[in-house]
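[Meeting: bench + compute handoff]

Bench side (C.D.) handed over the final construct sequence. Compute side (W.E.) agreed to return the predicted structure before the next meeting so the bench team could plan truncations. Sequence as handed over:
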Amino acid sequence: MIYKKDHHFMLEAIKEAKKGREEGGVPIGAVLVKNGEIIGRGHNQLLQKGSVILHGEMNCLENAGRLKGSDYQDCTLYTTLSPCPMCSGMLILYKIPRVIIGENSSLQGPEILLEENGVEVVNLALPECQEILEDYIAENPEIWDAELERVGYTTDLK
């Protein structure tokens, strides 16, 4: 189910994606929301920090700090792109019950796995999220292809 507030919080995730792009990184952003309040925000920092795990969702949870296990169960994660297998595993591990995706046409993660593990998956299919990433891919195809290859995706999934 989509709520009016979902669009508001997705706009915050988009701000994070744009921030990542301004830093020279892949424009994927995320925010973690508990009881209507953003408690964590982050963006993909693979390139900026030479990291292999700082996807937008992982950076967001890191920035939220150490929460009680029960806190995660009251959260929604907003992310501009469908979560990859690693980020999906994090959602399942911490029992975050809901993920709102900006788009999944540029790259789709294991959304069925999330749903099979009790996570509500909502795809807003926002053109802005798609355009931000597709513009980046068009300008940086070698970087995008290298990142996909690094995690085992083939480039025909673009």
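W.E. noted at the follow-up: DSSP finds eight helices and five strands in the chain. C.D. will use this when planning the next construct.
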